[in-house]
Amino acid sequence: MADITISIRDNGPYLVRGGVTVADAEGKSYEVQDVIALCRCGHSGKKPFCDGTHKTTGFESAPRAE
Ligand code: FES
User: Fold this and answer.
1) Model-level pTM?
2) What CATH number does residue 39 fall under?
3) Which of 15, 40, 56, 61 to mutate to test the pocket of ligand 1 (most atoms within 8 A of CB)?
4) How far is the centre of ligand 1, averaged over its atoms, from the C-alpha of 50 (Å)?
5) Which of 11, 17, 40, 66 has CA 20 to 30 A from 48's CA?
6) Number of domains the chain is built from
7) Cβ(24)–Cβ(48) below 8 Å
8) CA 49 / ligand 1 centre spacing (Å)
C-alpha cells in the first residue's frame, strides 16, 4: 500500500500526499498522484480543491490533536 499522508495547514487547506482517489458527493473522482490541496475554508472557486482564496478571506483555523 502506498504511503498516504494528510496534513492540516494552519489557516489553510488539507494537503493530501500519495496515490489516492478523491470523490465528490456526485461521484466525480480525481486521481491524486503526488500532492493535492483540499479546501477547508469553503471559499475556493474550484472546490473541492484549494485555490488560495483562504488567504484573502481571513479564514482562521489551527486545530491541534489533544
Ligand atoms: S482552504 Fe484554500 S481556498 Fe479554501
Assistant:
1) 0.86
2) 3.40.5
3) 40
4) 4
5) 66
6) 1
7) yes
8) 7
Half-sphere exposure of 47 (CA within 13 A, CB side): 9
Q: Is there a domain that residue 64 lies in?
A: no
Instruction: Give the residue-averaged pLDDT of 12-38.
Output: 91
Q: Judge whether 20 lies within some domain.
A: yes
In this structure, is residue 15 part of a structural domain? yes
Can you tell me which atom of ligand 1 is nearest the CA of 12?
A: 1
C-alpha cell at 35: 500532492
What number of other Cβ atoms are within 10 A of residue 34's Cβ?
Answer: 8
Question: Would you place residue 66 in the very low, low, confident or very high pLDDT band (cuts 50, 70, 90)?
Answer: confident
Ligand 1 contacts CB of residue 11 (under 6 A): no
Q: Measured from the CB, is residue 36 less than 6 Å from ligand 1? A: no
- Gyration radius of the chain over CA positions: 13
